[in-house]
Specification:
Layout: E1 5-10, H1 16-37, H2 45-48, E2 55-60, H3 66-76, H4 82-86, H5 93-102, E3 111-113, E4 120-121
Parallel strand pairs: 1-2
Antiparallel strand pairs: 1-3, 3-4
Helix pairs in contact: 3-5
Length: 129
C-alpha cells in the first residue's frame, strides 16, 4: 500500500487567510478521499480532470525548515521581490534563510508545501500590509 503524500500548511491561527486555507485544504483532502472510494462503475470523467490523489494534511504553526524554505523559494522563483513575499524583508534565497533563522515570525503565513512542489500562497485580502 502506497503511503500518502504529505502537504504541510504553515498556519497562523490568528490570520483569516490561514483559517480559510486550512478549511480549503481539509475539504480538498476529504474530497480526494471520498473520490478514491466511490463506485468505479460511476462516470466521473469531468470530475477526474480536476482530481488530486489522496494526501495527508500536516498543519503546523512552526516555520519551515531550511530545506522546506529552499524548496518553496525554488518553486516561486527568484524574481524581484519573490523571496520577500515568503520571508519578510528577504531579497534572495540566502537572505530568506538567514532572516528566518534570526526571526521565525518573518515567515509570511499561510503557505502550503508538499514534496511534489505544489505550493499555494494564500494572500490575506482582508488585511493587506
Amino acid at each position: 500500500h502506497k503511503s500518502l503524500d504529505v502537504i504541510t500548511l504553515f498556519h497562523k491561527a490568528s490570520s483569516p487567510a490561514s483559517i480559510r486555507a486550512q478549511t480549503l485544504l481539509k475539504q480538498i483532502s476529504a474530497h480526494a478521499s471520498e473520490s478514491a472510494t466511490e463506485d468505479q462503475a460511476t462516470d466521473h470523467t469531468q470530475q477526474n480532470k480536476f482530481q488530486r490523489t489522496e494526501f495527508e494534511l500536516n498543519v503546523t504553526e512552526d516555520p519551515p525548515t531550511s530545506d522546506q524554505l529552499r524548496t518553496i523559494l525554488e518553486y516561486v522563483g527568484s524574481g524581484a521581490g519573490r523571496a520577500g513575499q515568503i520571508v519578510e524583508g528577504a531579497t534572495s534565497e540566502a537572505d530568506a534563510v538567514t532572516k528566518l533563522k534570526e526571526n521565525p515570525d518573518s515567515f509570511q503565513r499561510p503557505v502550503s508545501h508538499d514534496p511534489m512542489l505544489i505550493l499555494i500562497k494564500f494572500s490575506d485580502t482582508e488585511n493587506p500590509k
